[in-house]
Amino acid sequence: MFLPIFSRAFSTSIMKQRKVAVLGAAGGIGQPLSLLLKDVPTISQLALYDISPLVPGIAADLSHISTESKVTGHSGESQLGDALKNADVVVIPAGVPRKPGMTRDDLFKVNANIVYNLATACAKNCPEAHLLIISNPVNSTVPIVAEALKKHGVYDWRRVYGVTTLDIVRARRFVYEAKNLKSIAAAKVNVIGGHSGHTIVPLFSQIPNVTFTKEELDKLTHRVQFGGDEVVQAKAGAGSATLSMAYAAREFTLDVLKALGGQSITQTAYVQSNITKAPYFASSLTIGPEGIKQIHPVGKISAYEEKLLDVAIPELLKNIESAHKFVQASL
Ligand code: NAI
Questions:
Q1: C-alpha–C-alpha distance, residues 216 and 174, integer Å
Q2: ipTM score of complex
Q3: How far does the signal peptide extend, from start to end residue (predicted)?
Q4: How far apart (Å, rounded) are the C-alpha atoms in residues 294 and 284?
Q5: N or C, where is the chain less crowded by C-beta within 10 Å?
Q6: What is the pLDDT of residues 238-262, one digit of tens each?
Q7: Distances (CA, A) of 177 to 62, 83, 169, 188, 200
């Protein structure tokens, strides 16, 4: 009778429990992501925040799931501080999604303000948390978050990540399908650069034992770069990718939690970087308890991919410049 009780107490005491806050938790991404995080054993508290009055209901609903984490709901700006206090990880899918015909940059004005204000609240309430930015346009929202944190003297580049995992999730699936691979694991593909259109650079040449014709490369590259549009069009005005994004965000969040627990994790994200001319760039990283430990070089790439990068970098520079202009104008 004693043993199970003892082992449970023991396992909880050695496993450091984390508080994860989801900002924008009532949204198309926020709700399924919160559901997917509810059963993560290393999360002790899942704090759900949104300006929407739906949050208490969503929190009550999730709180009935028989897993150990506690769910708290925080609705409206007056409750943002409580959602963030002592958070180890903050995931931010707050903002407006695309409608058909819109680019991610069209979202800039609305989402830039939202993200800037949320980052400011993080600077005040959880300055050491790892911030995972989903809100688009990621190419610009990440530098905006960095500037908001700098303004409060708490910026640490190692803990601010633009979540580009969905591009990798899509690339894996599309290659698996197109090349009839035996398993998804064989579709080991990295996607670097940024997170919009031509800034998305899939590195198909780095997949072991798989070769592509020029036609296949053109088709697959376009599909990864504009995969989000397939969903926006299919949803016909009802938003952009939410379920696949929630899956991708869970994958990235779990890896950050593992890194916080002491594991050395390899992941790709859009972060402050010095491996190209772009001061923010998505590439493979090693993440540890303090955040990013190492940014890996792009590695050997094909002439085809070199050309994609030549297009991506000037565009990224423009997106980063827009972010800096926005911040200067807001100060
Ligand atoms: P949604 O409109 O369904 O949900 C957004 C949620 O944010 C809403 O519940 C809304 O009330 C909330 N919100 C708005 N302003 C807020 C504020 N100031 N504080 C807290 N919450 C606030 O949108 P969806 O589909 O969940 O998308 C969210 C964002 O994620 C969009 O910007 C979208 O473009 C982006 N996205 C990013 C992807 C990526 O790969 N990084 C992929 C897909 C979408």
A1: 11
A2: 0.99
A3: none
A4: 9
A5: N
A6: 899 999 999 999 999 999 999 999 9
A7: 34, 41, 12, 13, 20
